[in-house]
């Protein structure tokens, strides 16, 4: 059974992220989206199967519900989650592999989040700038840089494990979706078309700042992806409430269907945001497409929001400064809830 | 049933989907802005909505009896899917009643969060300091419960981070839930969380391990007790194998026993998930030498659950005699002892064994010469019967099948559970009727034992070199002296 379920985020964790983090929500979303994209890109360059990379995506998302985003560099946390999941999988990758891949992806030579690589969303936009010129010196990895990356990688690894109580279990909906499609006889359409579309929805959902993988179990994700794919390819679904066969209720399905469909639009917008922020930070465009803590700090300064401590060192201080507030507010909230409950049951 | 009349959601889902498709960039932006504003007050609304929905939620909770963990409502898992957008929540509340008609399974996967500190436990005494690190008995301060704390051995010079074996052990134990497998309660860390160096696995505490009981007991286990122990071991292994887990280090010191006669498999430091069919390259450096299957000794890199069953056979023998069955001094000696007990492999009994990497260096009597000699080599069963004269015929057949050289001849764990041996008299003893023993783990430090340790990761695979077994063929002389001593006077039957 453990292979079909995931630990889910508690409402408290989701609430906490929205209300107590020092970062505005849309910045959190931008960080989340671009880091998850970075993880996917690294997975491709490391020749990891998607089953491994997707698990790393989920692990990363969980981690950020437990610890503040700004406590480590985003790319380091991404690398550590890939490293950790790959280590436990049949496809381990060495720290040096990761160092090389990440230094390339973060260099201005890579096409990662480069404006030219953005999918054309609008005809009215000016033609995209030319692709970046490949300058191998950009991503040359001197030994001392590698060593410090390696040290950060290991620190982030143990940090992730600590934050998640060493539970690295991730069940992906992908195999379930294929099984469900088989049960549905592929809705009488081309097997490969609808399967690909379904998996595409599942993979895109990994990037969703709504964190669908942390709020729904794999069976629900699988059913929603099939629903969306069937709509896209115009396949005829059973007349009855077939999702109930897979233990998904209509409410959850509807939520996920909309959630999955909205990722595309969100993603485009967030790419624009990231590019704008990079352009706003000095030297931002010289440092590759990935958003960094420095970019976020620059953006916050422009907005006149100051972050407390805990954002500019390698970081553990951020945790300490936030936690007491959280605990108190949490306590107050729980007491409120209890009161409401008692009143509710009394009346 | 919920008919077409109530299928408002299907329509709205479709509409919403269509809408989302049609939405252009600008609309999207507007929507996001609106959502932002909405979310600001959303949380407040959520609480109101939650309070209102409490009554309904309780009803829903009753509906899902499959779930076990509805202990506390404020902290407990929400009954339905997690709601992030409370306004939707409120809107959806009336439709939720339409679900009352259909019973959907709810999967409870638990939650995630930070490790607790080891300071929540009071150390009582050390149990063991072995190859895998340190184990201590401790008491949880809050509840007073006694647990075993096992420290994960971490080499600070190892630049590959936390050891993969330790992480696998934690993950596998977390995934397992069976009465014959030791339960992992949590993982705790040292107080200094800036660098994670002290990692402790909190396991349920059991008073004994089978090894020290066997060493200290004046009389061997009764036949009925052996059956109970084997049945428990076997059902634990059946659970593991059905979940694609190989233990890869089964031995008596890794089998724990509590004072209520319950056996639990422990120490998953070598365990891993292995798909069926197994991947082509697994490490051969698994299982403590005395319990290591012949195919591993011969260098097979592709192996499966059969290697655990071989270890079960060795444990079976050890339960009968109180002494490890095959105490080889090194790989070659171990293989010699195996062939002494089980006979030499032939192309008929184990087709393909000659293709294993280390088999090439073995010099076995050629099959033609052994068939020409009038005395056929005795079968494994006959040799085992000679060694265990008190074992019933069914017992001999079970042990002989577990100790088949050819891995495909060994029974699977679930087949073994059905074996006739367990149905014959004497019947397996009830666990509650088990004798109790003084617990060493509870009071005093144990004496170090001389069992070899499980192989270390990264150790060099031993090359067997040239080994001459030709003198063994058909004679099996050296095995004789280890036969059952003073047999025949065991009237201690139940």
TrEMBL record, chain A:
<feature type="compositionally biased region" description="Pro residues">
    <location>
        <begin position="125"/>
        <end position="134"/>
    </location>
</feature>
<feature type="compositionally biased region" description="Low complexity">
    <location>
        <begin position="115"/>
        <end position="124"/>
    </location>
</feature>
<dbReference type="GO" id="GO:0006357">
    <property type="term" value="P:regulation of transcription by RNA polymerase II"/>
</dbReference>
<feature type="region of interest" description="Disordered">
    <location>
        <begin position="115"/>
        <end position="136"/>
    </location>
</feature>
<dbReference type="InterPro" id="IPR036915">
    <property type="entry name" value="Cyclin-like_sf"/>
</dbReference>
<dbReference type="GO" id="GO:0016538">
    <property type="term" value="F:cyclin-dependent protein serine/threonine kinase regulator activity"/>
</dbReference>
<dbReference type="InterPro" id="IPR043198">
    <property type="entry name" value="Cyclin/Ssn8"/>
</dbReference>
<protein>
    <submittedName>
        <fullName>Cyclin-like protein</fullName>
    </submittedName>
</protein>
<feature type="region of interest" description="Disordered">
    <location>
        <begin position="302"/>
        <end position="328"/>
    </location>
</feature>
TrEMBL record, chain B:
<dbReference type="GO" id="GO:0007346">
    <property type="term" value="P:regulation of mitotic cell cycle"/>
</dbReference>
<dbReference type="InterPro" id="IPR011009">
    <property type="entry name" value="Kinase-like_dom_sf"/>
</dbReference>
<dbReference type="InterPro" id="IPR045267">
    <property type="entry name" value="CDK11/PITSLRE_STKc"/>
</dbReference>
<protein>
    <recommendedName>
        <fullName>cyclin-dependent kinase</fullName>
        <ecNumber>2.7.11.22</ecNumber>
    </recommendedName>
</protein>
<dbReference type="GO" id="GO:0005524">
    <property type="term" value="F:ATP binding"/>
</dbReference>
<keyword id="KW-0067">ATP-binding</keyword>
<dbReference type="InterPro" id="IPR008271">
    <property type="entry name" value="Ser/Thr_kinase_AS"/>
</dbReference>
<dbReference type="InterPro" id="IPR000719">
    <property type="entry name" value="Prot_kinase_dom"/>
</dbReference>
<feature type="region of interest" description="Disordered">
    <location>
        <begin position="1"/>
        <end position="103"/>
    </location>
</feature>
<feature type="compositionally biased region" description="Basic and acidic residues">
    <location>
        <begin position="21"/>
        <end position="50"/>
    </location>
</feature>
<comment type="similarity">
    <text>Belongs to the protein kinase superfamily. CMGC Ser/Thr protein kinase family. CDC2/CDKX subfamily.</text>
</comment>
<dbReference type="GO" id="GO:0004693">
    <property type="term" value="F:cyclin-dependent protein serine/threonine kinase activity"/>
</dbReference>
<dbReference type="InterPro" id="IPR050108">
    <property type="entry name" value="CDK"/>
</dbReference>
<keyword id="KW-0808">Transferase</keyword>
<feature type="domain" description="Protein kinase">
    <location>
        <begin position="121"/>
        <end position="422"/>
    </location>
</feature>
<dbReference type="GO" id="GO:0005634">
    <property type="term" value="C:nucleus"/>
</dbReference>
<feature type="region of interest" description="Disordered">
    <location>
        <begin position="424"/>
        <end position="494"/>
    </location>
</feature>
<feature type="compositionally biased region" description="Low complexity">
    <location>
        <begin position="51"/>
        <end position="67"/>
    </location>
</feature>
<dbReference type="Pfam" id="PF00069">
    <property type="entry name" value="Pkinase"/>
</dbReference>
<keyword id="KW-0418">Kinase</keyword>
<keyword id="KW-0547">Nucleotide-binding</keyword>
<keyword id="KW-0723">Serine/threonine-protein kinase</keyword>
């Amino acid at each position: 059974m453990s292979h079909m379920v995931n630990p889910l985020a508690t409402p408290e964790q989701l609430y906490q992220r929205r209300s107590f983090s020092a970062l505005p929500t849309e910045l959190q979303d931008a960080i989340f989206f671009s880091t998850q994209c970075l993880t996917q890109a690294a997975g491709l360059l490391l020749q990891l199967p998607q089953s491994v990379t997707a698990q790393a995506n989920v692990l990363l998302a969980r981690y950020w519900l437990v610890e503040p985003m700004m406590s480590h560099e985003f790319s380091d946390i991404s690398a550590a989650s890939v490293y950790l999941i790959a280590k436990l999988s049949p496809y381990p990758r060495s720290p040096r592999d990761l160092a090389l891949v990440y230094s390339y992806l973060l260099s201005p030579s890579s096409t990662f989040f480069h404006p030219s690589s953005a999918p054309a969303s609008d005809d009215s936009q000016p033609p995209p700038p030319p692709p970046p010129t490949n300058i191998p010196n950009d991503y040359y990895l001197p030994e001392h840089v590698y060593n410090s990356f390696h040290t950060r990688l290991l620190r982030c690894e143990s940090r992730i494990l600590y934050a998640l109580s060493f539970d690295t279990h991730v069940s992906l909906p992908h195999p379930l979706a294929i099984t469900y499609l088989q049960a549905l006889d592929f809705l009488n359409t081309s097997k490969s078309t609808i399967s690909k579309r379904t998996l595409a929805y599942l993979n895109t959902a990994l990037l969703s700042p709504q964190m669908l993988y942390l709020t729904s179990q794999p069976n629900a994700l699988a059913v929603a992806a099939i629903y969306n794919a069937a709509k896209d390819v115009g396949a005829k679904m059973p007349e009855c409430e077939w999702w109930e066969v897979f233990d998904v209720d209509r409410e959850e399905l509807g939520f996920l269907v909309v959630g999955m469909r909205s990722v595309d639009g969100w993603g485009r917008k967030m790419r624009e945001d990231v590019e704008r922020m990079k352009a706003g930070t000095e030297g931002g465009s010289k440092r590759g497409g990935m958003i960094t803590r420095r970019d976020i700090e620059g953006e916050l300064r422009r907005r006149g929001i100051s972050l407390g401590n805990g954002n500019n060192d390698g970081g553990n201080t951020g945790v300490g400064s936030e936690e007491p507030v959280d605990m108190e507010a949490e306590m107050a909230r729980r007491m409120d809830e209890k009161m409401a409950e008692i009143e509710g049951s009394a009346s | 049933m919920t008919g077409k009349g109530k299928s408002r959601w299907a329509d709205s889902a479709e509409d919403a989907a269509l809408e989302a498709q049609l939405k252009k960039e600008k609309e999207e932006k507007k929507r996001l802005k609106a959502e932002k504003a909405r979310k600001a007050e959303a949380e407040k609304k959520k609480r109101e909505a939650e309070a209102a929905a409490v009554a309904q939620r309780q009803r829903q909770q009753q509906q899902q009896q499959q779930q076990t963990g509805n202990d506390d409502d404020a902290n407990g898992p929400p009954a339905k899917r997690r709601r992030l957008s409370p306004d939707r929540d409120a809107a959806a509340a009336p439709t939720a009643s339409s679900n009352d008609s259909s019973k959907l399974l709810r999967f409870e996967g638990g939650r995630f969060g930070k490790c607790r500190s080891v300071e929540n436990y009071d150390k009582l005494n050390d149990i063991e300091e072995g190859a895998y690190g340190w184990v201590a008995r401790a008491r949880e301060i809050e509840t007073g419960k006694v647990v075993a704390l096992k420290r994960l051995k971490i080499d600070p010079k190892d630049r590959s981070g936390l050891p993969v074996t330790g992480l696998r052990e934690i993950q596998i134990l977390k995934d397992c839930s069976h009465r014959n497998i030791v339960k992992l309660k949590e993982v705790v860390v040292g107080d200094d969380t800036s660098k994670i160096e002290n990692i402790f696995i909190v396991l349920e505490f059991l008073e004994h391990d089978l090894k020290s009981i066997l060493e200290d007991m004046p009389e061997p286990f009764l036949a009925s007790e052996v059956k109970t122990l084997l049945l428990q071991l076997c059902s634990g292994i059946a659970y593991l194998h059905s979940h694609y887990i190989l233990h890869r280090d089964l031995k008596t010191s890794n089998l724990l026993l509590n004072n209520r006669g319950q056996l639990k498999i422990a120490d998953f430091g070598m365990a891993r998930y292995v798909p069926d069919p197994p991947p082509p390259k697994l490490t051969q450096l698994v299982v403590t030498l005395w319990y290591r299957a012949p195919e591993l000794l011969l260098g097979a890199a592709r192996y499966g659950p059969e290697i655990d069953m071989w270890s079960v056979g060795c444990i079976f023998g050890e339960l009968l005699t109180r002494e490890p069955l095959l105490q080889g001094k090194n790989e070659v000696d171990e293989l010699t002892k195996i062939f002494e007990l089980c006979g030499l492999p032939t192309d008929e009994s184990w087709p393909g064994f000659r293709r294993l990497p280390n088999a090439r260096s073995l010099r076995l009597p050629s099959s033609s010469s052994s068939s020409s000699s009038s005395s056929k080599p005795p079968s494994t069963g006959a040799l085992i019967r000679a060694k265990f004269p008190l074992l019933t015929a069914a017992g001999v057949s079970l042990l002989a099948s577990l100790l088949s050289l050819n891995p495909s001849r060994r029974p699977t764990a679930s087949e073994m559970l059905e074996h006739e041996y367990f149905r014959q008299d004497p019947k397996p003893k009830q666990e509650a009727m088990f004798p109790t023993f003084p617990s060493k783990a509870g009071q005093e430090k144990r004496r170090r034992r001389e069992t070899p340790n499980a192989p270390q990761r990264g150790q060099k695979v031993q090359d067997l070199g040239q080994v001459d077994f030709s003198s063994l063929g058909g004679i099996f002389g050296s095995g004789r002296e280890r036969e059952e001593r003073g047999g025949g006077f065991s009237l201690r039957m139940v």
